[in-house]
Amino acid sequence: MIYQPDEDRYDGRMPYTLCGNSGLLLPRISLGLWHNFGDVDDQSVAKEMLTYAFDHGITHFDLANNYGPSPGSAESNFGRILKEVFLGHRDELIISSKAGHDMWQGPYGTGSSRKNLMASIDQSLKRTGLDYFDIFYSHRYDGVTPIEETMQTLIDIVKQGKALYIGISKYPTDKQVMAYKYLKEHGVPCLISQYRYNMFDRQVEHENIEIAQLYGSGFIVFSPLAQGLLTDKYLHGIPDNSRAARPSGFLKESAITPEIVMKATKLNAIAEQRGQTLAEMALSWILKDSRITSVIIGSSSVSQLANNINALNNIKFSKEELQEIDRILGE
Ligand SMILES: NC(=O)c1ccc[n+]([C@@H]2O[C@H](COP(=O)([O-])OP(=O)(O)OC[C@H]3O[C@@H](n4cnc5c(N)ncnc54)[C@H](OP(=O)(O)O)[C@@H]3O)[C@@H](O)[C@H]2O)c1
Questions:
Q1: Is any ligand 1 atom within 6 A of the Cβ of residue 304?
Q2: If exposure means fewest CB atoms within 10 Å of the residue's CB, which of 126, 127, 316, 326 is most exposed?
C-alpha cells in the first residue's frame, strides 16, 4: 500500500523552534537512528517508526556514518525507506549525518581530518541516495586534528553543496568556542551543537549550553532517556530484547547499578503523580528548557515513540517537583 502522510501532521501539536540564530525550524522532538535501524533490526518496524514520526510532525531524522550494525547500514536502510515511502517529501525533511568515529579500516577511517570527513560524506550520500544532507556534523573532537582543519572542511562541504548547514558534536568547551569562532569568522556559522543531556548526565547544563547560546548555535540533545535507564523498563531486571540485553546494544548491563535503579524507581513515583510514564517525564524535564532546540529520541517500537511524543503534553514542573527531582538525583 502506498504511504499517505497524515494530513494533520502540521496541526500544531508538534512545536517547531528556530535553531540558534538561523532561520531553520526544528521540531522539539527529533528521531535518531543510532540503534534499531541497522541490518540486525526489523525493517518493517523501522519503516513504521519513520512514518509514525513523520505523521506526528517529526521532520528531523538524525544519522551518522557508523550507525548500524553493521556500520553504514542505518544510512542504507534509511535511504531505501526514503525512496519507498517519502518520495515527494524530501523538502519536508531535515536529515543529518556525521563523521568522526571509527568507520573503515586504516588511518583515514576515523577522526576529524579533512581526509576522513570528505571521504565520509561522499560515502554517506551514496548510501542514503541523497544529493545533500541538511546538516553535517563533526561527530567528535579527535584530540589531534587542528580545529581549523576540521572547521574549514565543514565549510568546504557546504560550499560544495553537499550539506546545507554544519554542526559539531561532543566538543570539549574550549574546542567548542574555537570552532564557533572559526566558523563565524569564515562566514558559515555553526548551526547546531549536539551533546548528551539527561537527568542522569547534566554535565553540559551550564557551560556548553550557555556557550552555544552566546554564539548563536542551536543545541540538540542526545540520549535523553540515558539509553533507556530513564524509563520503567529496568526497574525489575533486564528484559529480553532491551538495549542492555542485546549484544548489539551500546548500553552495558554494568550500567544498571542498584543506585540507578533506586533513583529511577523514585523518579518513576513522581512521574506517576504527574500522570506520566518515567520516559515522558524525563523528556518533559529536558523540553521545559527553552534553550534546548530539540531532543533526539531513540525508540525500538512505535508504542515507545508514541509514548515519547506524549511528553509534549506536559512540560511544566512545579518548584516542588523540580526540587524533589534534584534531591533524588543528588542522593
Ligand atoms: N552525537 C553523538 O555522539 C550521539 C551519541 C548517541 C546518540 N546520538 C543520537 O541520539 C539519538 C538518541 O540516542 P539514544 O537512542 O541513546 O536515546 P534514548 O532516547 O536515551 O534511548 C532510546 C532507547 O530507550 C528505550 N526507550 C525509548 N523510549 C522508551 C519508552 N517510552 N519506554 C521504554 N523504553 C524506551 C529504547 O531502548 P530498547 O531497545 O531497550 O527498547 C530506545 O531504543 C541516537 O539515535 C542518535 O541519533 C548521538
A1: yes
A2: 316
